[in-house]
Specification:
- The complex is a heterodimer of chains A (287) and B (334).
- Chain A has 287 residues and is mainly α.
- Chain A has a domain of 176 residues: MetI-like fold, CATH 1.10.3720.10.
- In chain A, 73% of the residues lie in helices and 3% in strands.
- A two-stranded antiparallel sheet of chain A has the order 1-2.
- In chain A, helix 1 packs across helix 13, helix 3 crosses helix 10 and helix 8 packs across helix 10.
- The longest helix of chain A is centred in the first third of the chain and has 33 residues.
- Chain A is globular, with a radius of gyration of 24 Å.
- The two termini of chain A are 23 Å apart.
- In chain B, strand 1 and strand 2 form a beta hairpin.
- The chains are: A mainly alpha (287), B alpha+beta (334).
- Chains A and B meet through helix 9 and helix 10 of A and strand 6 and helix 2 of B.
- The complex binds adenosine-5'-triphosphate and magnesium ion.
- Magnesium ion (MG) binds next to helix 1 of chain B.
């Protein structure tokens, strides 16, 4: 698009799409903002006028707020750590010439195609059930007392389930990065006297830094909003109430749209703070 | 020290034997060049010496000790790759210091050696840049710098100049030759460019399909090629190989005569033909001549600018004492 004419033509032709997307984004955002300043109780009298900043102060001062922020962050960081570390390891393994490579790769990707609700239910009922779950059988086989995963190790269990879902995504992106590494660089490092771990640390890891950045950025966006996994497993009990789950409870269980909307605005702010941090820390890898 | 000895070395990839049993001795301080057509196994041979590829059978000795099962780092060799293989996220200084850091050397000693290498190779101006910000020739220098700081017993080069433009290639060729004179370290150099081979080598190893066709100094190979393959491969333009009646006259299956050993005469030459293409370089003129009754085309190099052009008849006199004779198996007849 070099000339002035072609640039303005391009603008005109892009306008409908831009306007549509902007509307798509702005309408819910503005509605959330609007409701957050209203006393709006759908089952108890509907919209009852201005609330000022009441909803905002009530949401933060509620005893559930800070724990929910903490829970959200722990889940996000836990899942990121597990998916990145294991993603790198699996990517390195998959890069080795092994028999049946194609099939193994598809198997590794498979969890990504399972819906979150379904995978959470499968984990809850088939693996983590304290009576009939696979883990319970395994524990009993070794003579141990079965663990009631979702109540006694609730956070660990949820991090586990969510990691299982996101590991394929991380692995896939990291695998393409591993494969793009010039093998002569590794050979040069080998000749330079770097043993395997040093080659990994000084050559492979820096090469992967871009891919790791992308994995972290994309996953964070989605992980801040996980919901289905918590809804079908613990229902927010046992200290697994994340910010998004808290908002859900305020709106649907307490039927307080105003309060929930204020929570939504806090969630947006939190997401932006994290995004800015991430961009600062890892975004410089993307130049 | 840097003597490398290959004893009955073979290499197979799966069922395909790329290097049949091969013996070769590279003497300490020698500049050895492997030449041969593409796919003949030059890189493979170099990688076997480096230890980047396991040999299928045979032994490799470096300075008299068996290095067959030694890992690359322990062989004391440094390699310069065709793609340079610089570490893209490290500055030039860090790239060069990397092998020293891996050897857990003192920081002061590292600095001293890196600075010395930077001096020798004129890297000082861009020592803090990343490889991505360098030109091809500069990257090549950094790669060489990374090799020399280790003070290896031998350098291995795999077509280090093939990514450079012609002018730069000539310059770098000189620099590497000078480096060899200065360091007096063994160098093994792979190329398919026979001009590089002729100008740089103390000893040329001509390979074909993994087999050593001839080993010798550039002039030995030029003067007395052991067979028709070497005869055709060494020298530019290529030697004229003539079979048939003319060869029988000289009691050979094939005779060879280099383009520079055929004189152009006004008339009554031993041979004559019509000029196909005449390449006028000013200092020399190359004629590609047809209809001689000897071979498809005959190449002749005449000194100076001779004003014969396409379609002209040309008279030629080969210098009989420069004639090479080969038997039916392609081997040289003494
Ligand atoms: N990893 C490998 N697996 C199977 N065959 C290989 C492998 N590496 C090389 N070869 C084969 O070995 C032969 C020699 O290859 P090599 O790379 O040594 O050739 P080269 O002389 O360096 O050629 P070039 O001048 O094109 O670089 C080729 O026929 C090649 O196909
Ligand atoms: Mg090669």
């Amino acid at each position: 698009m070099a000339t002035k004419a072609s640039r303005s033509a391009a603008r005109i032709m892009m306008a409908p799409a831009v306007i549509l997307l902007l509307g798509w984004m702005l309408v819910p955002l503005i509605m959330t903002l609007w409701f957050s300043f209203r006393v709006y109780l759908p089952l108890r009298g509907g919209d009852q006028g201005w609330a000022g900043f009441d909803n905002y102060t009530r949401f933060v001062t509620s005893s559930a707020f800070w724990p929910s922020v903490q829970t959200t962050l722990i889940i996000v960081l836990g899942v990121l750590a597990i998916t990145v570390i294991f993603g790198i390891l699996i990517a390195l393994l998959l890069d080795q010439p092994i028999w049946g490579q194609g099939v193994v790769r598809i198997l590794v990707i498979a969890p990504f195609f399972v819906m979150p609700t379904v995978s959470a239910l499968v984990w809850k009922n088939m693996f983590m059930d304290p009576v009939n779950g696979l883990f319970a059988h395994l524990w009993r086989f070794f003579g141990a007392e079965p663990v009631s995963w979702l109540s006694d190790a609730s956070m660990g269990s949820i991090i586990m389930i969510v990691s299982w879902q996101w590991l394929p995504f991380a692995t896939l992106i990291l695998l393409t990065a591993v494969q793009s590494l010039d093998s002569e660089q590794l050979e040069a490092a080998e000749m330079d006297g770097a043993p395997f771990l040093k080659r990994f640390w000084f050559i492979v890891l820096p090469h992967l830094s871009r891919a790791i950045t992308i994995v972290i950025l994309i996953q964070t966006i989605f992980l801040l909003a996980i919901f289905a996994e918590i809804f079908v497993t613990t229902g927010g009990a046992f200290g697994t109430r994340t910010l998004s789950y808290l908002i859900f409870q305020r709106v649907l269980e307490s039927q307080n749209v105003g309060l929930g909307s204020a929570g939504g605005v806090y969630a947006i702010i939190l997401a932006n703070i994290i995004a800015i941090f991430l961009m600062r820390i890892v975004g410089k890898n993307l130049d | 020290m840097g003597q490398i000895q290959l004893k009955q070395v073979t290499k197979s990839f799966g069922d395909v034997q790329v290097i049949p049993p091969l013996d070769l001795t590279i003497k300490d301080g020698e500049f050895t060049v492997f030449v041969g057509p593409s796919g003949c196994g030059k890189s493979t041979l170099l990688r076997l010496i480096a230890g980047l590829e396991d040999i299928t059978s045979g032994h490799i000795e470096i300075d008299g000790t068996d290095a067959t099962d030694l890992v690359p780092a322990k062989r004391g060799l440094a390699m310069v790759f065709q793609s340079y293989a610089l570490y893209p996220h490290m500055s030039v200084r860090k790239n060069i210091a990397f092998p020293l850091r891996m050897a857990k050397m003192d920081q002061s000693e590292i600095d001293r050696r890196v600075n010395a290498a930077a001096e020798v190779l004129n890297l000082a101006d861009y020592i803090d840049r990343k490889p991505g910000q360098l030109s091809g020739g500069q990257r090549q220098r950094v790669a060489i710098g990374r090799a020399i700081v280790r003070e290896p017993s031998a350098f291995l080069f795999d077509e280090p100049l093939s990514n450079l433009d012609a002018a730069l290639r000539v310059g770098m060729r000189m620099e590497i030759s000078e480096l060899h004179k200065k360091l007096a370290t063994t160098m093994v150099y792979v190329t398919h460019d026979q001009v590089e081979a002729m100008t740089m080598a103390d000893k040329i190893v001509v390979l074909q399909a993994g087999v050593i066709e001839q080993v010798g100094s550039p002039l030995e190979l030029y003067r007395a090629p052991r067979n028709t393959f070497v005869a055709g491969f060494i020298g530019s333009p290529k030697m004229n190989l003539i079979t048939g009646e003319e060869a029988t006259k000289h009691n050979a299956a094939t005779i060879g005569i280099r383009p520079e050993h055929i004189d152009v005469v006004q008339s009554d030459g031993m041979w004559q033909g019509t000029v196909g293409v005449a390449e006028h370089l000013g200092s020399d003129t190359f004629f590609h001549i047809h209809n001689t009754g000897l071979a498809e085309t005959l190449t002749v190099r005449a000194i100076g600018d001779i004003s014969l052009t396409h379609g002209d008849t040309i008279h030629l006199n080969p210098r009989m004492d420069e004639l090479h004779r080969f038997d039916a198996g392609g081997l040289r007849i003494a």
